[in-house]
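Recap from last week: sequence in, structure out.
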Amino acid sequence: MRLVSSKNLSEYFIIIGCGRLGANLANTLSEEGGNVLIIDRNKEAFRKLSPSFGGLSVAGDGMDFDVLQEAQIDKTDVLVVVTNNDNVNVMVAQIAREIFKVNRVIARLYDPERECVYREFGIDTICPAILSVKEIDKMLLKTGSTEKVDKTACELKEETK
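Predicted structure tokens:
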């Protein structure tokens, strides 16, 4: 699976959070020739990066303005925030959009009900719970056990009001 098209090779990606998802994303983008910087509070987390990882790693708090400025967040094309804490993810995403004017911000969130908040700020989201529901629904469709469900948490929340 290609994440970076040939026209995007010069794009600068910042990833905040070097857990399984962050490290895998950083490795993939790096292997595809992307310009990648990854930030994590725990310098031991960088052991998850591939030996062939060609990007930069910064040990620091992604909510710290000095760390973000050191990472040159104002020059990033894409910021991806994938820590294991929704509050951190929304805070960093909002700082990036509102203060540093980052055009493309993607954040993982565990609580699907928070998706609406992210959308209001123009932040793209990835929610494991919603993705899992959609994938299970696809599997059930193959067996004819359910109708297609393709709604976001925001749409489902509106229906219950």
